[in-house]
Give the backbone structure.
Amino acid sequence: MEFDLYFNPLNIDEIGLKKDESSVRLGNEILVYGSEESFPAIDSAEIAIIGVEEERNAYRNNGCKLAPNQVRKYLYNLFPLEKKVNIVDLGNLKLGATVEDTYTALADVLAELFRMRIIPIIIGGSQDITFANYRGYENIGQIINAFCIDSSIDIGLDAHKFNSKAYLTAILCREPNYLFNYTQVAYQQYFVDKETLGLMNKLYFECQRVGKIQENLDNVEPLVRNADMVTVDIGAVRQSDAPANANPSPHGLYGEQLCKIVRYAGMSDKCSSIGFYELNPLFDINGQTSHMVAHAIWYFIDGYIWRKHDYPYKEKESYKKFYVSIQNDSHTIVFYKSKKSERWWMEVPCTKDKMIKYERHYLIPCTYDDYQTALNDEIPDRWLMAYNKMTV
């Protein structure tokens, strides 16, 4: 693929990278497609930054297209991480004549990056760009799990109405469908109607309120560890920490909580793309929100550095294996505990045909508490949801 045909180069002076000879900044270690440079070689890249200045389907948030370069101003001037990571910045995607053209172009680019095993970090733009991210996986025929951080569940009751607050409907209606599981955290109940929550339950999708996950943020780790695609709506962060949004809420995650969840995503062997959306610089205060998103991206990269490469379906001999019989042997749940990271997974039984089709999904991340629940002769909720989905 001729990537340079899809991107506009960056004006390095506009990004404001500080040339401080006495210290090295992250921006100095990133290969950037600048206006005075040729397109960078990406064969050895591990992570690719992509700006998408698309807002034509934004829901009452015009101005979010300005976010990519604003985030770069802060990201590039952070200090590098402990270990070297090969990062390229491909520039800003050339927008199509129509929004659909933009989606198609981005999906094509992402599909090629997935084939090359390069992780894209997408900076939007409005969150409907997640639809194009999903189509990138569709282009390579990969069944995926999606993980969303958002204060509302972006599903529309009208299948013909599409915007950044209804993009999930378009994903669910795609045929053939490559979305195996969808998990959302940090939703606020007064922003979600009962019909939507009922639909999520019928589809065996897990959704957790912001108050629930704040009780113990570590419980989010196995949820995000199961995800291939992560999408972040900055509106999930409370207005005091992230004012740069036209649809803000006084409640939500704190900025440091977002960074912790995103770091979990970076640590996941499964996660192969992440996007940050709905940041609107027109509403920002002293660059506060852009700075926070830059921090979140830094933490994602930091998580990536510390990946353990212990996804169990690859090397089961690196795990301790536990069998737990439940309810008079009506079910036997197999648990795996990594010897490298001490993280837990549990196996969901299914037919051989489905095991081949869902080879990346019948082993689901869990916690030690799930193991304890099974020892107490109770079926863990997460196992039951996956089991019901497998047997449909």
Q: What stands out?
A: DSSP finds 13 helices and 14 strands in the chain. The first strand starts at residue 7 and ends at 8. The chain has two domains: 3-305, 316-390. The mean pLDDT is 93.
